[in-house]
Amino acid sequence: MLTKAAKPLVKLVDRYLPDPYIFVLLLTLVVLISAVVAEQKTPLEVINYWGDGFWALLSFSMQMLLVLVAGFMLASSPPIKKLLDGIAGFAKSAPQAIILVTLVSLAASWINWGFGLVVGALFAKALARKVRVDYRLLVASAYSGFVVWHGGLAGSIPLTIATAGHFSESQIGIIPTSETIFASFNLLLVLILFVVMPLVNRFMLPEDKDSIYVDPKALEDGGADDKAVQLTANTTRPADKLENSRLLGWSVGGAGLVYLGYYFAVQGGSLNLNLVNFLFLFLAIVLHQTPRSLLQSLNEAIKGGAGIVIQFPFYAGIMAVMVQSGLAQSISEGFVAIASAESLPFWSFISAGIVNIFVPSGGGQWAVQAPIMLPAAEALGADVARVAMAVAWGDAWTNLIQPFWALPVLAIAGLKARDIMGFCLMQLLITGVIISIALSWF
User: What is the pLDDT of residue 280?
Assistant: First the structure.
């Protein structure tokens, strides 16, 4: 039933959804024109705001890139891949495979969004090699776990506002993760999605005559890429020995983990974006064992970060125009006019979901929306932490139909966006209702 309802929407999105880079270009033009028309600024003034702010988020951009890269390298390490193959053996039927891949993806995405994307795709392939199941829904279920990422340990918005020196610190200070990620309302919402999402995906399972299966042999991992990460038997050059040295990898990786243990156990440090990236990077170094294995994983990971590199400067420019021209203040006043302290989280969620279609990045979206939502929260006396998490959940929510972050999953699985979009649209509608209720009532 859910599958049939999604078919016309699949065609619509497939026809009119361009590349995310096109979105950021369109949004740039919309903001530039809006600043001229609505704020009575000259075109030259607006262009100057944009150019001056274009490189303001370089440090932040690097943090976002490392979230993806470090998560990918950890998920693709041999021990993690072997673990996924073992867990896949628990699924004995198609419904079990759908439920299992959803739960694993949810858990992995809550830990780290880059980790979750890769783990979900690799686990879907592992299950498809063992169980006869509709491959499109299997991959869509793997991607659906991504909906919880911004409420998890690597959520860029809660970690950003918990990190000293973030761009809104002078306005809201440092907000610890105990008020965002580990707040009771957020944990309860995550728990509900852990229960609902596997069931939603299970009941979208098509009948056998409507299912599309994949040849398990086509999903085998053997080949040049996997062989390349193995130790070479006859290494004579000193450089080869260093690249294949387990001792080198374990020594440096171990030193990083010792630092983290000291930081949390002795210094009483708190979780922030830099610490999450540090943890995943050095776990990846240890689990890959050799520098060569890690570097080959890095070469694959960096491909998925191309969008961050090219788009984040545009987000910085957009933020600068919105703040300097007064456009952000005007929009903020509009939200104040229709919202109350209690309803602002809901409106923040909806607006974030819409903006995410144009700004498919949690960090980039916060850069654009923080100048709007924070003044509104202050004017209404709303809970700033809850408003920030509402923006975070809005970003995560419409990622279900924004193919930007699905690209790593689709590349690993060997599918196209249109193959999974029908299922993702149904997931979007159901999760939208759940998250809206949670932010408004919990």
Answer: 87
Q: What is the 3-state secondary structure (H, E, C) of 153-183?
A: CCCHHHHHHCCCCCCCHHHHCCCCHHHCCCC
Contact predicate 431/197, CB 8 Å: yes
Both structure tokens of 101: 């891949």
Say if residues 360 and 408 touch (Cβ distance below 8 Å). no
- Looking at the chain, how many residues does it have? 442
Residues 6 or more apart whose CB falls under 8 angstroms from that of 236 comprise: none
Q: How many CB atoms lie within 10 A of CB 252?
A: 13
- Dihedral sign, CA of 244, 246, 248, 253? positive
Tokens for 352, please give them.
Answer: 């974030």
Name the residue with tokens 């198609």. Answer: 94
Half-sphere exposure of 422 (CA within 13 A, CB side): 18
**Considering the entire predicted model, what is its pTM?**
0.77
Q: Which residue has the tokens 């073992």?
A: 86
pLDDT under 50 in the chain at which residues?
222-233
Cα 246 to chain centroid distance, Å, stands at 31
